[in-house]
Amino acid sequence: MDEERAREERQLSPDGCALIYERLPGKVRRLVRWENPFGTVHFFRGEGGSERHVSTTFANGAVVSYGGEGGRERKLKTTFPSGMAMYFEGERGEEHVVYHLQPCGAMVHYEGEQGRERKVRIVLPTGQTTFLDGGKGFERWVKSTFPSGEVHYFEGGRGRERKVKVIHSCGEVKHYEGERGFEREVRTARAHRYSLAIADEFTEAEADESIAPDAPPAPVQDREAEERAMRVAFELIEEEECRKASAVRKAFAKAAKKKAAKQKKAAAKLARVHEDEAAAPAAAPAAAPAAAPAVLSLSELDFALDDMAGAVPCIRETDAATSVATSLACVICMAKERSVACVPCGHRCLCNDCGKPGAARGKCPMCRQRVQAFVRIFL
Known about the structure:
Blueprint: E1 7-12, E2 18-23, E3 30-35, E4 41-45, E5 52-57, E6 63-67, E7 74-79, E8 85-89, E9 96-101, E10 107-111, E11 118-123, E12 129-133, E13 140-145, E14 151-155, E15 162-167, E16 172-177, E17 184-191, E18 207-208, H1 221-283, H2 298-307, H3 319-323, E19 340-343, E20 348-350, E21 373-376
Antiparallel strand pairs: 1-2, 2-3, 3-4, 4-5, 5-6, 6-7, 7-8, 8-9, 9-10, 10-11, 11-12, 12-13, 13-14, 14-15, 15-16, 16-17, 17-18, 19-20, 19-21
Helix pairs in contact: 1-2
């Protein structure tokens, strides 16, 4: 039974990323997970050589889900710890937001291509729907519909929308003037023929200019409460977007700081090794044999290579991770072809530069057995 279970293999890259593979007896190993030092984890599914990216989790708790075949994965959904969820459509690299759900239950719909998405409609759990118009960042309210059948119309720029007209299901049409929050009713009309389906085409010519004095006024408490709820939901949406942008900036700054500290530490360790090698011949007696060169461990060699004038390109988070599964690159520098095998395990996993004889006392990066010698293989 133990032989039939999948065996997990872990492979480290020079920039500190960890590639986790799963190997079944008699099958090609497949990539299942890729972790970077900053807390980002990518998950993969599929057979060896045709893995596809399915999701990514970030240190701040956000989760991005992907769909599509390997090499053509596209973003479908992003969820945040606050409970907000964003949904996307479009081909890979051109995904655009189509709507997102707020923790309060509000749904915001968008239109436009990637980077230019603009809000066009907001639906509250109460059933109120507000329509917006304008470019990204300048959306303004133009109309709100309520479950009771009322339709409110607005005018003015973003943040200064004022109510100008209200059409009730009973046929009343009220006109308002004044700044936002201080609108006052100036005129009321009653329609002889009214339908919500033709509310936008309703004209004053189809209405009487007065209402019978004994007609009871329409209740306004519910409408005012719904309008206040709509404004609060809109403010919460903007606050969440600002908080999300700030969290992204902080995460990038923290990641850059960690990488700089790591490279500085590796450079200092390499400098100390060079100093020890330079001082060793002076301290030894004239008749004594030359001192043996210092040997770096494979982990120290990873950090040293990562700091050498950008010799090793950084692995891109999505495309490079998917192609690593079938590459024949050196597992240490990930830049040159494998041409050196470890003895006695026989794993061909190093290039000619990383498999120098001076590192013979290290361990095989594939199986972690102690290496007695390196043998170059010519294909």
